Automatic annotation (TrEMBL):
GO molecular function terms listed in the Swiss-Prot or TrEMBL record: manganese ion binding; metalloaminopeptidase activity
Every Cytosol aminopeptidase domain range: 312-319
Oxidoreductase is among the record's keywords: no
Species in which this protein is naturally found: Alteripontixanthobacter maritimus
InterPro entries named in the record: Leucine_aapep/pepB, Macro_dom-like, Peptidase_M17_C, Peptidase_M17_N_1
GO cellular component, one term: cytoplasm
UniProt record similarity statement: Belongs to the peptidase M17 family.
Enzyme class: hydrolase
EC code: 3.4.11.1
Signal peptide per UniProt: none
Keywords: Aminopeptidase, Hydrolase, Manganese, Protease
Protein name according to UniProt: Leucyl aminopeptidase
Single Gene Ontology BP annotation: proteolysis
PANTHER family per UniProt: LEUCINE AMINOPEPTIDASE-RELATED (PTHR11963), PEPTIDASE B (PTHR11963:SF20)
Length: 465
């Protein structure tokens, strides 16, 4: 994670100017340049296209030019390429037409563009920090908090399973709790068997080195509205006895991405001092293979009392979430939000950039989608069709964890989770990828947060800024 503060209040200090232009307005803007400056930009093939960066000599100094879609409507990412490629220094957006121009939403991407993951490999040619100034000081704290949360997700997901097992997730929760004077309780190992039998069954094969656990963080006033956040913490997924292929297993260090989102969101909620009684649960396991691994055809009990036939041991995330959702429902929350790297079906349908969103209430979906659109983190709603519930029927148990056809995998997984959410509780489920397969400005290849900012800004609107 990038540790340096990369945005700062503009108090008139020396800084290099950045001009933002788009392709349509470039020719008009370029008329104000000296001939030598226009030649310099022509030599760099700069024409104002998105994410282009130009360097313009100006006497003994220089200024930068960035191509954006619309200089009047900036996005989170429109200045990210500048933050990636400009040299170390301090920068401010140049005034235009006599008026002040501020980076606004671009403050977020300016920071995430400078993210590095160096736990195992240091950059041989590091670039010093690029600091962006803004006169809107009220924007700084929020932009910095959101960027830290985003980069927390990246750090956690990028870390391999040997160093990011259930115990490491517990340590992360403890560190966040200490920061905000929250309370953490943890149920570990065989102590899970009675109260959280599905968490125990999934995680018991890895108990020697990575014992399963349910992590529970509580914060806020007892009389405040209860908000429950849950994150799937499968720290590595071999598939269990229904073992994955080598290619399918390669990225399974990221299967705790839901837990990373839950931890980051909890930190944001507490830092923003939202007036809620926060309960966060992370069921943390490794889905391993051993003589005591749960088997296809087994019937598991659950905290809710439902019995679950195992149609596929590789559909383990919904099992551990089932016990956590049941426990969360017992607190009578006003809202439950869960994050999970749950199905490949969601990725086939939506690709990596849009997390699948399923909700019981239309208003909750609308609010999350609106918040996502406003903050460049748009989820895409998928249905929870009643007609597909029968696909989870079992001949010998209350339900099966894996349906027997290839249709609607993400929605059917959501329907499984729905069985464990208390009646009448407002609930939102993010089936998020937590991984970026291809880099984009401000968004490096590797661990990624999807749905995090959408959820946080919806909660700010719902529970008060």
């Amino acid at each position: 994670m990038t540790k340096t503060d990369l945005i700062a209040p503009d108090r008139g200090q020396t800084a290099t100017a950045i001009h933002l232009v788009n392709k349509d307005g470039y020719e008009g803007w370029a008329k104000s340049l000296k001939p030598s400056q226009r030649v310099a930009l022509d030599a760099q093939k700069f024409d104002g296209s998105g994410y282009q960066v130009g360097i313009v000599p100006d006497g003994d100094s220089w200024f930068a030019v960035g191509g954006v879609a619309d200089p009047d409507e900036l996005s989170s990412w429109c200045m990210a390429k500048l933050a990636e490629v400009l040299p170390e220094g301090t920068y401010r957006r140049a005034a235009s037409n006599g008026g002040d121009r501020e980076p606004g939403p671009a403050l977020f991407g300016w920071q995430t563009a400078q993210y590095t993951f160096e736990r195992y490999k240091k950059d041989d040619n590091p670039t010093g920090p690029r600091i962006l100034l803004t006169k809107n000081a009220k924007d700084i704290d929020l932009a910095m908090a959101e960027a830290r949360a985003d980069m927390r997700v990246r750090d956690l997901v990028n870390t391999p399973a040997e160093d990011m097992g259930p115990a490491a997730l517990e340590e992360e929760a403890e560190a966040i709790a200490k920061k905000h004077s929250a309370k953490v309780t943890v149920t570990r190992g065989d102590a899970l068997e009675q109260d959280y039998p599905m968490v125990h069954a999934v995680g018991r094969a890895a108990a020697r080195h990575h014992a399963p656990r349910l992590i529970h963080l509580v914060w806020g006033k007892e009389d405040a509205p209860v908000l429950a956040i849950i994150g799937k913490g499968v720290c590595f997924d071999s598939g269990g006895l229904d073992v994955k292929s080598a290619a399918g297993m390669k990225l399974m260090k990221k299967d705790m991405g839901g837990a990373a989102h839950a931890l980051a969101l909890a930190d944001l909620i507490m830092e923003a001092a939202l007036p809620v009684r926060l309960h966060m649960w992370v069921p943390a396991v490794e889905n391993a293979i051993a003589s005591n691994a749960f088997r296809p055809g087994d019937v598991l009990s659950s905290r809710k009392g439902l019995t679950v036939e195992i149609g596929n041991t590789d559909a383990e995330g919904r099992l551990i979430l089932g016990d956590a959702l049941t426990r969360a429902s017992e607190e009578k929350p006003e809202l439950i939000i869960d994050f999970a790297t749950l199905t490949g079906a969601a990725r086939v349908a939506l690709g990596p950039d849009h997390p699948a969103l399923m909700t019981r209430q239309d208003a909750t979906a609308d609010a999350l989608i609106a918040a996502g659109k406003a903050h460049d983190d748009e989820p895409w709603r998928l249905p929870l069709p009643d007609g597909y519930r029968e696909w989870l029927n079992s001949d010998i148990a209350d339900l099966n964890n894996a349906h027997g056809n290839a249709y609607a995998g993400a929605s059917v997984a959501g329907l499984f989770l729905d069985r464990f959410v208390g009646d009448g509780i407002d609930w939102a489920h993010f089936d998020t990828f937590a991984w970026r397969p291809f880099p984009k400005p401000g968004r490096s290849k590797g661990g990624a947060a999807y749905g995090l900012r959408a959820a946080f800004h919806m909660l700010r609107e719902r529970f008060g800024k």
